[in-house]
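Structure tokens please, single chain.
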Amino acid sequence: MNDGILKSKYFTCSKEGHKPPKSYDPMVDKDSSKQRKRPTIRCGCRAQIFLKSMDGIKFEINEFVEGQYHAMVEEEDKHFVRSNRKLTHVQEVNIKVGPVKAFNILRTKYGGFEEVGASKDDCKNFKQRLNCFIGEFDAEMVVQRLSGKKCYDDFSFEYNVNDNGELTPLFWADEISKKNYLAFEFETKWLLIMKEYDLESNKWLIDMFDMRYDWIPAYYRDEPLSGLMHTTSR
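Here you go.
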């Protein structure tokens, strides 16, 4: 770097040099035996390219050292190389179901883990970065997203917050949901039927209508619904 202009670049092999030996002090590193020993890929490769530039825009090769004597990455292992591991936007959207489950879905979809283009750890890391980015502003992001849709004529959106500033009720409806509501407007049709057949004073029907929110749970009381349950606990 000269006067704020980058004038030289070095590119070396990922296997250049050697891993420095780790010193061991039995008085300090008492639990070192429990640490996982990671293998190293560095083997002292001397392959490198040295680039120089006068303006920091155009670079020329000033020195090239071939010096590579180790085997290259095998074809079946190329998907493990960092430059080949990247989640696409479509794959990132699937992470919302959980990183491990999302990876298994992608593995099945693409016909093998080597075709996914990312590893299970990449999915976990993306989920972690996403959670750190959202932080405590998940409700605020939802409100901002739905507020931006108010420019459409048939979109409705209302919400409330409690005394602690927490999002409590939230309601939104677009054009399709409004049309669906009109097609299945139960309460209106119920009242029309009661009036048509002069049943407006029938106590049993009045009581049944008042407990209408319990109809579906009662109807499916004997049906196993465990498949609809979802938990993130381990």
